[in-house]
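Researcher: Next entry: Dynein axonemal assembly factor 4 (Merluccius polli).
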Amino acid sequence: MPLIVKDYSWTQTESTVYLHVPLKGAKAEHVDILSTDEYLKVHFPPFLLEVFLLEAVDEARSSAKLGNGVALITLPKRIHRPWDNLVLSINDKQTMKAIRERALQAHMENTAVGRREKAVKKQQEKKYSLETMMKVLEQEERELIQKMKDEEREKATAEMEGWKIRHKVQTAVEEPPLKLTNGDTVKTIHQATRGCSVKPGPTTSSRAGSRKEQVDLPAPRSSGKIQIKFTPRAFPTALRESRVPEEEEWLRKQAEARRAGNTELAVELKDLNNEERNPDWLKEKGDKYFATGNYHCAVNAYNLAIRLNRKIPAFYSNRAACHLKLRNLHKAVEDTSHALDLLTPPVADNASARARAHVRRGTAFCELELYTEGLQDYLAALKIDPQNEVLQADTNRIRQIIQGCRP
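Model: Predicted structure:
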């Protein structure tokens, strides 16, 4: 059962209510705040504060600030007037249950709307980025093709001009003077035939044929091969569809975790042999103990593996499974939360591990009767694996429990 927070304080003005809640050493990322116009809940395991407000507040303008071990919650009033008390005086469990259900329903609707808006915005940004990138690539490709065309055109023009020059020089050097019928001597055919008609004889035809055979044609273009190199990929997704920075950060974290080795080894672990200093070997031992139902020994094996290397999320997730079997529910919540902190950024390579951690933490919350928190974890797991029928059935069962119609 959660511990109820009673040492909070509140102040008010004509238009606003200020609520001060001590966090009792809890980190800001572990504090869950749910606020509607008539209900407020602050949950930081294992503590819980639940307030049924005296009058309605403006949910859209409500805010919360976390710092210095205190949560300051600002609730603008719908009607500007002083309150005699912060909490609505009710003892009817059915009324309290109805208020909780309305708050949960409103929170789920707001979350769904926000998720849809975020997904639409993200899709639009992705589409715009893709269109921009494709335009840039198309422009670069067009410029490259045009440049290649211009170079080929200039090369062909230069070869043709060189061939013309060589042909003129060779013709001028090799062509002898021609004799006309009246005995005049000329240097070229063009000069001899200017203004008159010339009937070439056999000698002229043979010389023309020899010149035609000696014409130099341009050499054929040389052939070649274009080498294409592909960027190596550690993940199976296409490069333009992947999340490269997040994937590289995940790989870097995994490499650092494996390099960590025995750097955090305590003084009392020096007597262990080489096999017992291997975290992977200890994890296999813990898995075997868990499979045979020896959960205490499995916890000891995972404890030692974590002392050797604190950056492997599987150690915490597996130890949480043992704590669930031993009914150490708060420890299970703590271990799964630590595993989810290490399973960042969320990529395809760690999707199954994240889903298992969410299910285990959701199960621990439900065993603690914190069904709202458990439902959130099951929804997160269902988002990762939407086709899992077992997850769908468990999620629907938790919803029924929250709504008061236990199957």
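Model: Note for the record: The radius of gyration is 41 Å.
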